[in-house]
Amino acid sequence: MSTLNLILQTLHNLTRWVVIILAVIALVRAFSGWLGKKIYTSADARSGSLYAGLFDLQLLLGVILFFTKGWFGVLAADMSAAMSTASVRFFAVEHWLVMIVALIFAHVGVGAAKKAATDRLKFRRSALWFVLSFLLMLAAIPWPGMAAARPLFRFFGLF
């Protein structure tokens, strides 16, 4: 494996955990604000923006990996063969498509909260869009035990 791919995979893996943590924080703030009838503050807006922003970085790292790891070439060479193998199909198609939808939902949540007229509506819109985003993101992660499993933690090839 090239040094560039090793660095990219490590960064993509580490960023995943930051995005998951930020998603949980944004979700907790959104649901506690909605159900607790709190005032929507700049910290609430910032938590959603950080989640979506770091998710953007995660996607960028993933797109670079998609092309440097050769997944695009696998699809271009023989789409039928790629689609018939679960682990190849996962990375060549499913993983990035579902992640893009999850990212779009995160950004819709940020935007919908900005446009909402009341604090309660800001929290509710954030909560609903962020939970959809989060569930899709979790579904598209290559968890251990899956056909396309990847390690939970990667650190420059050391583990």
Describe the 3D structure.
The protein has 159 residues and is an all-alpha fold. Helices cover 79% and strands 0% of the residues. Helix 1 packs antiparallel against helix 2 (42-68) and helix 2 (42-68) runs antiparallel to helix 5. The radius of gyration is 17 Å and the shape is elongated. 25% of the residues are buried.
Q: Number of DSSP helices? A: 6
Global geometry = elongated
Q: Which whole number gives the mean pLDDT?
A: 92
List the uncertain runs: none
Q: Count all strands and give the number.
A: 0
- Classify the beta-strand content into a percent band: under 5%
Radius of gyration: 17 Å
Main sheet characteristics: none
The end-to-end span amounts to 14 Å
Compressed to H and E, one letter per element, the order equals HHHHHH
What is the share of helical residues? over 70%
Structural class: mainly alpha
Write the layout of secondary structure elements.
Blueprint: H1 3-36, H2 42-68, H3 71-77, H4 79-84, H5 86-115, H6 119-139
Helix pairs in contact: 1-2, 1-6, 2-5, 5-6
Features:
159 residues, mainly alpha
Question: How would you sum up this structure in a few lines?
Answer:
The protein has 159 residues and is mostly helical. The protein is built from six helices and no strands.
